[in-house]
Design a protein that fits this description.
This protein has two domains: 98 residues, Carboxypeptidase-like, regulatory domain (Immunoglobulin-like, Sandwich); 569 residues, TonB-dependent receptor, beta-barrel domain (Maltoporin, Chain A), CATH 2.40.170. Helix content is 4%, strand content 65%. It contains three helices and 45 strands. It has a 30-stranded mixed sheet that branches. The chain has a six-stranded mixed sheet with strand order 8-9-14-15-12-13, with no helix packed on it. The longest helix is centred in the N-terminal third of the chain and has 17 residues. It is globular, with a radius of gyration of 28 Å. The N terminus is likely disordered. This is Outer membrane receptor proteins, mostly Fe transport. InterPro entries: Beta-barrel_TonB_sf, Ig-like_fold, OMP_b-brl_3, Plug_dom, Plug_dom_sf.
Amino acid sequence: MRIVVLFIFLALSTLAAAQQASLVVAVHDSARKPLAAATLTLLRSPDSVAIATQVSNSTGTVTFSGIANGHYIVQASLLGYTPRYQPVHLQDNLTIQISFGYPDQGATLDGITVMARQKLVEVQADKTIINLDAGLSNTGTTMLEALEQMPGVTVDKDGNISLKGRSQVLVLIDGKQTYLAPAALATLLQNMPAAQVSQVELMDQPPARYDAAGNAGIINIRTKKNRQQGFNGTINAAFAQGFYPKTNNSLQLNYRNGRFNYFFNYSTSANKQFTRIEALRRYYNSAGQANRLLEQPSFLRSLGTNNTLRTGLDYEASKKTSLGMVLSGTIISRNSEGGNSALWMDANRKMDSLIKTVSHAETRFRNAGLNLNMRHQLNAKSELGADVDLLLYRIGSNQAFENTRIFPGTYNEATRASIPSLLNIASARVDYSVQLKRLKLETGAKTSFVHTDNDAQYHYFDGSSWQEDLGKSNHFRYHENINALYGSAAYKKGRWNLQGGLRWEKTRYNARQLGNAAQKDSTFGRTYNNFFPSVQLGFDIDSNNSISLSSSRRIDRPAFQKLNPFLFIINKYTYQQGNPYFRPQYTWNIELEHQYKGMLITGITYSRTTDYFAQIFPIATNGIVLYTEGNLDLLETWAAAVGLNLSPAKWWSFNAQSVFTHKKMEGFVGRALRADINQLNFTWNNQFRLRKGWSGELTGVYTSRSQHDIQEVVDPAGQLSLGVAKQVLQQKGTVKLAVRDILYTQWMKGNTYFQQADEYFKLTRDTRVATISFSWRFGKAYKTARRSEGAAGEEKARVGTN
């Protein structure tokens, strides 16, 4: 039997090898001069599924290897030229050369209609790209909801994002940091329509040109940019219905004429949402026996509106120099009201007291940004770039709490708070690159300045008038400067390629907590600098198999607000407080990865984090849980990942990724703590291309029992989503219908362990939502200029707001 199986395996292998060919494509202009940096995509005929994408080298050529026999279409595009399409019939063991005349005023092939379909997932040597428009389940969702469905990405109950089981991910938008702490970043992403975004890049081991922040890597969210000649645009409108209605709408306009390119993007959304929390806290005596219970059911209803504007222009000053300016602004308003009960019981669940809480909050988030950028080609092999960014944030929150004791007896107490936050950021960077035959060199420098001013004013009602609560009020100012230098090199010879870089960053900050009649004035500061090396070694085993080994050192700095020791009220028996002694955490990552035809990707990763960030939950004597963050000793993570990209049939594409992670955490929170856990994250996506412009999608996400903090364990959860789409209006319009979390299983529940207490929690939101959307594209279809990513870096991910 084994011999028969071996024979069949060898026969199939021989047959597969015999049915593969190579395709060499040469690109040149009307003067037959080779064109470098042209994008060539191999499309399967007749369904136009993208098989592979490459960029032409300095000789204007690319090679597609290991391609199965059959009919294909080659799509070629380059800035300033009309896209061209060429049909190809590959035969056994043949190398076919195709030359594109590629004139400036070209025409597509007569009688051929090419509808290129994007892959949902593209795997490259240094990153994984998710094309959002290729996923129907993203219809009408927010960006945070879209991230939850991406391979290896998880989002916890507080909106914290993890990548391959590791938290502290650096989130960029168009290559620039948001400078927002996790809570404020979650607010931004919860109000950002996924329809604004074209791609999301997942980078486990970012190169030296990126900020060293983010021990788990970088998630770069690329917004849509209309890159077409003449006047063009896209309109998107979506209506969703869950427990409450929601809507997402956007308009993208672009006009290019001569050397000028103008763009205008606007989006607006309204999201009515609810959050239901069930919590049961158990308190233990010195003998380890439960002696008190606190049950805290709560319900929060909120309405959030978002208006975002992004506009600017690009100007080609000469053939070698381009200039750009981008203006952006965001206004998010959110009103919420909620009710909470605090039911105290003894160990036998006999009621001791009952307190009802009514809360109301108004939050206003405003952001304005300016980017100025320049690119200059010094010669055919070198380029100089510069970016300057100015960012302003104004975040205000007005809160009111009223506690009423129902039993025994009655009493009322009321608290209100005004918590404005001001943030000003300025950053600048310069980058230089040069290509020397097989060697590419890059170097650059960056500086950033951050100023924050948070003035939290609390008042309590004494029965007749409002009085200032000086014990809770807090005025905090923070100044920070980070300077960075980097250098990197990339070398390729034969089957080997090597990339290495070194980044140096120096951080200096000082902070002041202004005193009042109840608190003393205090100041603190720190200066530190570090080197952050990164290296990647790759080897092409053959035309189908490649292997790479990479390693890097990274840093995570505490969010600004996490250093502020002021008290933030979550509910009557749960507070949050900053930690002025919070230190950075440092991580070493090493990863070994194998790719087979871009179809099967396997990898193993090890990371070691010292002084790692963790939630810490000490308890006050009156039963109040104080939530803060600090440094614990050690976090070690081992991970094994498997990714699969298949086309089982011409009408069916399948993508899946599973990540198995083992974590070990050690630290001291009142006592020595240690945690070991195995966890699994699995995502899968099925796309179906049907007849007459119809398409469908079925996706799923599952996360096993997991642990992100040493004191908190989360139970398994998942979701299933379905979508269908129909192209209309001569394929310029698309109607989509999607249902997210069909089985309503995307809850979050688990247990938190404190000193002499623990708490069970379950959190549910309005996640089962049906969405119908319509998009319409108008204008011509020619490529246009690039849009700068800007200079802003790591600081955007660290604005501390709640």
